[in-house]
Predict the 3D structure of the following.
Amino acid sequence: MYMDYDASTPRALATEAVHAGREDLAALGLHAPPLDLSTTYPSYDIRAEAARIDEFATTGARLDGPPVYARLDNPTTARFEDALARLEGTDSAVAFASGMAALTAVLLVRASLGLRHVVAVRPLYGCSDHLLNAGLLGTEVTWTDPAGIAEAIRPDTGLVMVETPANPTLAEVDIRAIAHACGSVPLLVDNTFATPVLQRPVEEGARIVLHSATKYLGGHGDVMGGVVACDEEFARGLRQVRFATGGVLHPLAGYLLLRGLSTLPVRVRAASVTAAELVRRLATDPRVARVHYPRVGGAMVSFEVYGDPHDVIAGVRLITPAVSLGSVDTLIQHPASISHRIVAEGDRRSAGVSDRLLRMSVGLEDVEDLWRDLTQALSAAPAGTPRTTDGSASPSRRAVR
Ligand SMILES: *Cc1c(COP(=O)(O)O)cnc(C)c1O
């Protein structure tokens, strides 16, 4: 017999990951979620349809019943949104075609209210930095450190944005302290690296949580998407912007992301154990100048080498030299050449992105196989004069917490 989901019953994250967004399936006589690829939906009652369109246009509330057109909503994507909201502990979530489309929608919601100023802390993912810094959407950014946030806020500030752990240095900020400094200005935390398995920013005072779903949420390197988890009021603005600008997630991507969520806790925890072991070994390796690994843990590791980072990238065999992260297989890349190339050199360096920094996304392979590959690739990069590219003295060989 089918039992209704009772939201008052607390369920653990691992349980939510496999059940959220799927509560109605048994009543539908289904096990796997259905994939609805429709772009349009039939309706013989034009008056009722007009009323539903008016309702959506004025409120941004999700439509009752089938969507009118796929740019308004999609039932498969809605399952992914419901599940992600549950994992992040928010009322709602709104999905987009990519992480950048998601950030764009957030900025447009605020700009449409005349709040065009953004306060942000570096480093951010390279393209997020670029989107803000180039003012492509008519926004203006003030870069500051966490201690300077309160002072940087102006009457027209619409958003404070941080990434923690940050791409690519894994630098962390104190979300609670920053949320306090924001006052009534919404704080957006890009939670792509930690995922809700390791950190739930809304519980610490953030109003908006952004994910590049392309990374851990999808988890297999075969789907691109973005999602914003937030309160229902902000979600309504996002749905209106998504409808008007069209950055919708394809339903097949929604299907794959929902499937990805079901293994998210297992993948993140397993890869984190391997990452922590690789950090331990890298931290005592004489070819490695510095290792970055965040307190929150996770499967991302960054490290600076004494030798030429290009030789390390050219030397890997099991590990894939590629941008992106969060897949089941291990990837390594050179932020100064790839993920953060679009950030001006001076801005990159002052944000702590050294030219010798490598960023590795640890996957689910066996730790010994990964270490064997890493250590042979490091041997391909003979150490020159020990130094960091910012000219400072040789840093200590320790994991920077
Ligand atoms: C990749 C990434 C993004 C951008 O997401 P896309 O899905 O590539 O558009 C944003 N933030 C972080 C932290 C990322 O790693």
About this structure: Residues 264-379 form a domain with the Aspartate Aminotransferase, domain 1 fold (CATH 3.90.1150.10). Residues 98-100, 125, 127-128, 163, 167, 190, 192, 212, 214-215, 224, 226 surround pyridoxal-5'-phosphate (CB under 6 Å). The CA atoms of residues 190 and 210 lie 5 Å apart.
